[in-house]
Design goal:
- One of its GO terms (biological process) is peptidoglycan metabolic process.
- A hairpin with a 4-residue loop joins strand 4 (111-116) and strand 5 (121-127).
- This protein has helices at 15-20, 31-44, 48-91, 136-147, 151-156, 159-168, 176-179, 195-203, 229-235, 238-247, 252-263, 283-295, 303-306, 309-327, 334-347, 349-357, 362-370, 374-384, 388-405, and strands at 5-6, 12-13, 101-105, 111-116, 121-127, 208-213, 218-224, 270-271, 275-276.
- The chain folds into two domains: 5-38 and 237-405, Orthogonal Bundle (Lysozyme), CATH 1.10.530; 91-229, no CATH class.
- It is 57% helix and 10% strand.
- The strands form three sheets. A five-stranded antiparallel β-sheet has the order 3-4-5-7-6, covered by helices on one side.
- The chain has 406 residues and is an alpha+beta fold.
Length: 406
């Protein structure tokens, strides 16, 4: 595959041209670098005893934070296993919140609602019911409830997150201004501001299909969201993306393409790695590297911080900056470096290096990469990265990058 990039007028822009145009913003540093250097310089003038106290205090803080997070991770995995076991007994599957879908279950597990951000649909399902037992009003009210759910309510009603929180003592509470942000804003699917009116409008639309499985007595209602939802779900994060892309000297289109690929704009996205939020931040790796840039010191970012969309975008943008300006700075061509940055965001720099020299050393891979044209770098990554997931990821992000550039 050898994708081209189009400019706003629709003309093809070669990779070489693109290097000097839309990627030029990737070359400068961020203010946080200077802040970190100033902090280190200031610390060097402290008396030695005070300095040792500070170091010991910080190391203790790191130990405590890591222990707290490790306890939460273990509690999360245990809660996952327990809850997925309960779901499987009831439904015969283990469908639950992941990167691309947000899933709510009723207390008795007999009903579930799935907001599928990847396929722009809402699925409302009922288990152990007769085919005519569920009414139009039941479906409409359930959809209305979903439209009224905000991020904090979604967290509070998530059985796995709450079980892990209770077991570990780690509270998951986002900032007040973010807490009220709707998981599925009415404005993204209708011109009406009344959630019940929107629910009725959607249930009455032609994009609704119903199926019934008599053996399991399962009723499924699939509501296809309006075409404009795809645009609106991305649009609501554009302002934060533009702000943090500018702060970290990135092209906003790159950040948007990665959000699109990582989560399809699902603010509750998470995986069992664990990774959290829109840009699927892994606290132990990307989160730590980004925290050094943002706060000037290593810091374990907690789920409550990463479920905040603004925080998540800031952290993801900072990590992209770290990849582009530090870990991959030895790649001279900005377009070649862009492709490697995208791949590294998914799989790490060691696996990127392995695609070129069969060794997991970026330092040793620089010479080989710098001998290649950007198109050759792309082709090698797209065919020789160790994991198919990353090869597919690169293709998707590059394609979506073109979409958002336009």
């Amino acid at each position: 595959m050898n994708p081209s990039i189009r400019n706003k007028s629709g003309k093809i822009v070669s990779r070489r041209m693109m290097s000097g145009l839309i990627l030029s913003g990737l070359l400068t540093g961020a203010p946080a670098l200077q802040a970190q250097e100033d902090y280190q310089l200031q610390q060097s003038y402290q008396p030695q005893e005070d300095y040792l106290d500070v170091v010991q205090e910080f190391e203790q803080y790191q130990e405590d934070t890591e222990a707290e997070f490790r306890a939460f991770e273990e509690a999360m995995e245990s809660a996952y296993q327990d809850f997925l076991g309960d779901i499987e007994k009831e439904w015969g599957d283990t469908r639950f919140t992941d990167q691309y879908q947000w899933v709510q279950y009723s207390g008795d597990l007999k009903q579930r609602t799935i907001v599928d951000y990847q396929n722009d649909s809402v699925v409302i399902e009922y288990m152990d019911v007769d085919s005519k037992e569920v009414t139009y009003q039941d479906v409409t009210q359930q959809l209305n409830k979903t439209l009224q759910t905000n991020i904090q309510t979604a967290i509070d009603s998530d059985p796995v997150l709450q079980a892990a929180s209770r077991a570990s003592g780690l509270v998951i509470e986002v900032e007040a201004d973010t807490a009220v942000e709707a998981m599925l804003p009415s404005s993204s699917v209708s011109k009406s501001t009344n959630s019940m009116a929107v629910a009725e409008e959607l249930v009455d639309s032609e994009g609704v299909s119903t199926s019934y499985l008599p053996v399991s007595r399962r009723l499924t209602v699939v509501i296809k969201l309006p075409e404009e939802f795809g645009m609106h779900k991305a649009e609501r994060y554009w302002k934060a993306t533009a702000e943090y892309a500018k702060a970290w000297k990135l092209e906003p289109a790159l950040v948007m393409a990665i959000i699109h690929t990582e989560s399809s704009f699902n603010p509750m996205a998470r995986s069992r790695i664990p990774a959290y939020g829109l840009m699927q931040i892994v606290p132990r790796t990307a989160g730590r590297d980004a925290a050094r840039m943002i706060f000037g010191k290593s810091k374990m970012l907690k789920p409550k911080y990463l479920f905040d969309p603004n925080n998540n975008i800031q952290v993801g943008a900072a990590y992209l900056h770290v990849l582009n300006h530090r870990y991959l700075k030895g790649i001279y061509n900005p377009e070649s470096r862009l492709y490697c940055t995208i791949a590294a965001y998914n799989t790490g720099t060691a696996n990127v290096a392995a695609a070129f020299i069969d060794q997991k050393s970026m330092q040793k891979a620089y010479d080989r990469i710098n001998q290649l044209e950007p198109s050759e770098v792309y082709d090698i990554l797209a065919t020789r990265l160790p994991y198919r997931e990353t090869r597919d990821y690169l293709k998707k992000v590059v394609g979506r990058y073109q979409l958002y550039i336009n």
